[in-house]
Design a protein that fits this description.
Blueprint (H helix, E strand, L loop, with lengths): L8 H19 L3 H18 L4 H30 L14 E9 L2 E6 L4 E6 L13 E8 L2 E6 L24
Parallel strand pairs: 3-5
Antiparallel strand pairs: 1-2, 1-4, 2-3, 4-5
Helix pairs in contact: 1-2, 2-3
GO cellular component, one term: plasma membrane
Membrane topology: Multi-pass membrane protein
Protein name: NfeD family protein
């Protein structure tokens, strides 16, 4: 007198696909998305066509594996190609500008970088302590552990003065 549970397999396939989509939203690696599509098309599709439970599972497994090994690598390649590499952590500090906040004594001082961090600094080999006073703009040339090596920042090119060889516009009035 128990109902045939295979009549309700469609609920299992929909629930499984929904679970895979939720997990995919947390991982963002396309693995569970491929499993969800395999469950929907393979499992639910064969169920709706009236296939037996073992064929539903087999179709879902085969389709999921096929998608994992063919479509997923293509999607990952496209996703990674469109994003450019962004320097982070220590790599982001190379070339960053800053200002000297503590005078250099025996080649060691302190600088506040443009990202707001204050670092212990030392001057490059060809510089003397007097070359970088407090407030001087510097650029990070190397990171040595918890110390940055700095060099004076290149001075920006002076801005061109406005051109004065063009005559001023004539003022027009509608007075009459």
């Amino acid at each position: 007198m128990l109902p045939d549970l295979t009549e309700y397999m469609w609920i299992l396939w929909l629930s499984l696909a929904l679970l895979f989509v939720i997990i995919e939203l947390l991982t963002l690696e396309f693995t569970f998305l491929m499993l969800a599509v395999g469950s929907l098309i393979g499992g639910l599709g064969v169920n709706l066509l009236g296939g037996p439970w073992w064929l539903q599972i087999g179709a879902a497994a085969v389709l999921s594996a096929l998608l994992l090994f063919t479509i997923r690598p293509l999607l990952l390649r496209v996703l990674r190609k469109s994003s450019r590499a962004v320097a982070t952590n220590v790599d982001a500090i190379y070339g960053m500008g800053g200002r000297v906040v503590a005078p250099f004594v025996d080649g060691a001082g302190s600088v506040k970088l443009d990202n707001g961090e204050t670092w212990t600094a030392r001057l490059g080999e060809d510089l003397a302590d007097g070359d970088a006073g407090v407030g001087t703009r510097v650029t990070v040339s190397a990171v040595l552990g918890a110390t940055v090596e700095v060099a004076p920042a290149a001075r920006p090119a002076p801005a061109e003065p406005p051109r004065t060889d063009t005559p001023p516009k004539e003022r027009t009035t509608d007075d009459g």
